[in-house]
C-alpha cells in the first residue's frame, strides 16, 4: 500500500443531505457519518493521487519490486465524501452518490481553492458523450475557475494487448475532463492452470504459491451468497462468496476485486 499520510489532509467534508432525504438518517452500522472511508475506496484513490514514494514495495512473493508512488506525491488532499452504502445492502453491493451532493461538493472544493479535482464516481453502464450530464456540469463549472478535473477510465472486463477496449465502452467521456485509462502493463506474470487431463490454460497470477494437489474448479456465480444482486454476480466482490462453498476449490470469476 502506498502511504498517504494524515499530514497531507488539509481538510475534509461530507455530504449526506440528499441521501438522508431519500433513505432517512444514516445507519451507523452501515455508514460512518463523517468524511472517513469505510470500504477502502477513498484510501485507494487518495494513495493513487498523492501517495508518497515508498522504496522496496512489491506484491506478495516479491513480484514487481521497486518504488511505489502516487501521481503527485508532494500534493495535499482535501476530502469530499459524497457516496454512501445503500441501506440493508453489503458494502460489496456498491454505494450511491446523489448528483446534488456531488455538485455541492464540487462547489465547496472550488470555493476552498482546490486546484485539481480527482473524481471517482461513475455510472454502472457507459454513457454517451453528451449523456453524462453530471460530469459535464462538474467539468464545465470547474474549468471556469482554472480547476482541472481528472477521472479514471472504467472499461468493463479485463483485457490485454490482443483485446483492446472499444471507445464506445468508455464510462467517463464527458468533455473538459482529463480521462486517465491504465489499460495495460509493460510486463506479464504468467501462471498456468493445469487440468487433471493434462491440458493447460495459460493465465496471469501474482501469487507465490504453487498448488500440488488437484482442486475442483467452480464458477463464482455458483458459490455466491444468496443476497448478491444480479448485475454483480460472478465478480467475486468483497463479501460475495460463501466461505463454506469455496473452501478447497479454485473459483473462476468474470471480473473482480
From TrEMBL:
Entry superkingdom: Eukaryota
Gene3D superfamilies reported in the protein's UniProt record: 3.50.30.30, Peptidase S8/S53 domain
Domain Peptidase S8/S53 intervals: 24-124
GO terms, biological process: proteolysis
Compartments it resides in: Secreted
InterPro entries: Peptidase_S8/S53_dom, Peptidase_S8/S53_dom_sf, SBT
Molecular function as annotated in GO: serine-type endopeptidase activity
Pfam families xref list: Peptidase_S8 (PF00082)
Sorted UniProt keywords: Signal
GO cellular component, one term: extracellular region
Protein family membership: Belongs to the peptidase S8 family.
PANTHER family xrefs: PROPROTEIN CONVERTASE SUBTILISIN/KEXIN
Name of this chain's protein: Peptidase S8/S53 domain-containing protein
Species the sequence originates in: Tripterygium wilfordii (Thunder God vine)
